[in-house]
Design goal:
With 228 residues, the protein is mostly helical. The chain has a domain of 137 residues. It contains seven helices and no strands. It is globular. The termini are far apart. Keywords: Cell membrane, Membrane, Transmembrane, Transmembrane helix.
Length: 228
């Protein structure tokens, strides 16, 4: 007579890799949140800030603007002797207080450092990457793509590039609005102000570039899609 098959106890570990036991090969369950390490955050923010600085520099050399505080800084270069890097940091100072109020000191510290590093990288680009003649269409397209990807990187490492980015993050987290669309509405105001200092064709080109940048953010930065 055959021995009846014994059903395994669902509460007992079934092998060294079973998370119910003490095996060393325990695998995280699907959907587990694996936060970035400190080293990953540092490298991610450095990568994002460098890309942002390069994009900002290409836009400046193309005599174009973008949205957000980057666009405000670019606008101010037409009326002040300061470089875009310095202006980018100065314009963001009021938004650091907003970040501290709504996002806490850790996020504010990361944002302040990120903005400062962008300003430093922008000075490096001006020193080591002279662009005597750049096609404005290419400059605007490349600059806004770089800015859009840079923002995604710093967002995903718990930081931002200040200014309107902080407002967009707060609107997304507190009001459940798309960060990219919130930023786009604010950017329109900056683009319209560009008519006061730039030829219409440059402003229209800038507007197209701002749409590209914000679409990159809107399509890739959604609540709950990426948590780390």
């Amino acid at each position: 007579m055959s021995t009846p098959e014994v059903e395994p106890d669902p509460d007992e570990p079934q092998g060294p890799g079973d998370p119910r036991g003490n095996g060393a090969n325990v695998q995280p369950f699907a959907g587990a949140i694996l936060p970035h390490t400190a080293a990953e955050d540092v490298l991610g923010v450095l990568t994002g800030t460098f890309m942002a600085a390069l994009g900002l520099y290409l836009l400046e050399q193309s005599e174009a603007v973008s949205g957000g505080t980057a666009g405000v800084a670019l606008l101010l270069t037409f009326g002040t002797p300061l470089s875009v890097g310095w202006l980018f940091f100065l314009v963001n100072i009021p938004f650091f207080a907003l970040a501290l109020w709504r996002k806490g000191w850790r996020f504010t510290l990361r944002t302040t450092v990120s903005v400062g590093v962008v300003s430093a990288f922008a000075a490096v680009c001006e020193q080591f990457l002279p662009v005597p003649d750049i096609n404005p269409v290419f400059g605007v397209f490349a600059g806004n793509v770089l800015l859009g990807v840079a923002l995604l990187i710093v967002f995903r490492h718990g930081s931002s590039l200040g200014g309107f980015n902080i407002l967009a993050l707060i609107a997304q987290e507190q009001l459940h609005l798309r960060g990219g669309y919130v930023q786009m509405s604010l950017d329109i105001t900056v683009i319209l102000l560009a008519f006061t200092v730039l030829p219409p064709e440059n402003v229209l080109l800038s507007a197209g570039g701002a749409v590209i940048m914000n679409l990159i953010i809107a399509l890739n930065h959604r609540p709950g899609r990426y948590r780390a």
